[in-house]
Design goal:
single chain; mainly alpha; Four Helix Bundle (Hemerythrin (Met), subunit A); Arc Repressor Mutant, subunit A; 3-stranded antiparallel sheet; two-stranded antiparallel sheet; 11 helices
């Protein structure tokens, strides 16, 4: 059983299942967005994750949830602190709600609201949002794990709180794929996928593949082999739908 399935199974012993399922779903999607370099997508999934955790905590503490149109996660999270400390642990009243509020404030007060000539804050925000989401899941697992073998619990917690690295990065305009043991064809394909919908000059794609440790002839051959998956506009390449599908198949196996 993978760590997220273990966490889900354990949390269902004390929390409402539907909110746990939603939280795990949004967490998994945020991980995918992060690994794909979709920083804004991470923020959006992070906001949904916080909503699910808020509902889960509220139900656990006996708080009646308002209608969805009136639901404000921030208000509910702040109100949890006012609950009777003799009835509910500080973990669910204060500690986890404050971590959720951190994500909530970032998502709702940053997002797209910055000047066009500013540095986009979303990539910085992701470096706070992702580990905080991981920590929340780990803390919920710890809180609900009374009676579980401590070493087993520690292993699950360590696995979910380990640093998550993006599959893609770009340095001075040069894209890199941070996935081990890829062949040249897969590397060329994923570079095109990362840059989509922008085009890449064929000669530049050869150079980018070379930078991943391949010899020039191998890089040229690899780029030649992806030509049936791209639109070629006078040497300027853009991935087609079939190429996108192939790239996503590679990523799904990582």
């Amino acid at each position: 059983m993978n760590p997220l399935d273990q966490i889900k199974s354990q949390l269902e012993s004390i929390f409402e299942a539907k909110h746990i399922t939603s939280a795990i779903k949004y967490y998994s999607e945020a991980v995918e967005k992060h690994q794909g370099g979709d920083w804004e997508g991470v923020s959006l999934k992070g906001g949904k994750f916080v909503e699910s955790i808020t509902k889960m905590l509220a139900v656990y503490c006996g708080v009646t949830l308002p209608a969805q149109r009136s639901f404000k996660a921030g208000n509910i999270l702040k109100n949890l602190e006012q609950l009777n400390s003799s009835l509910f642990s500080d973990t669910v009243r204060i500690v986890i709600p404050k971590a959720c509020l951190l994500i909530y404030e970032i998502v709702n007060n940053r997002g797209g609201r910055h000047a066009a000539d500013d540095i986009d804050p979303n990539s910085m925000d992701t470096e706070v949002i992702m580990p905080t989401m991981s920590w929340i899941l780990a803390e919920l697992f710890r809180f609900s794990s009374k009676g579980i073998d401590p070493e087993s619990a520690k292993t699950v917690i360590q696995s979910v709180t380990k640093r998550i690295y993006p599959h893609f990065e770009e340095i001075d305009g040069r894209p890199y794929i941070n996935i081990k043991n890829l062949d040249g064809l897969s590397t060329a394909l994923l570079i095109l996928y990362y840059k989509y919908p922008s085009r890449i000059l064929r000669r530049d794609l050869v150079e980018f593949v070379e930078r991943h440790g391949f010899k020039k002839n191998t890089a040229r051959t690899s780029v030649h082999r992806v030509m049936n998956l791209v639109d070629d506009q006078n040497g300027s390449l853009k991935l087609r739908g079939t190429g996108i599908q192939r790239a996503e198949e590679i990523l799904s196996k990582v």
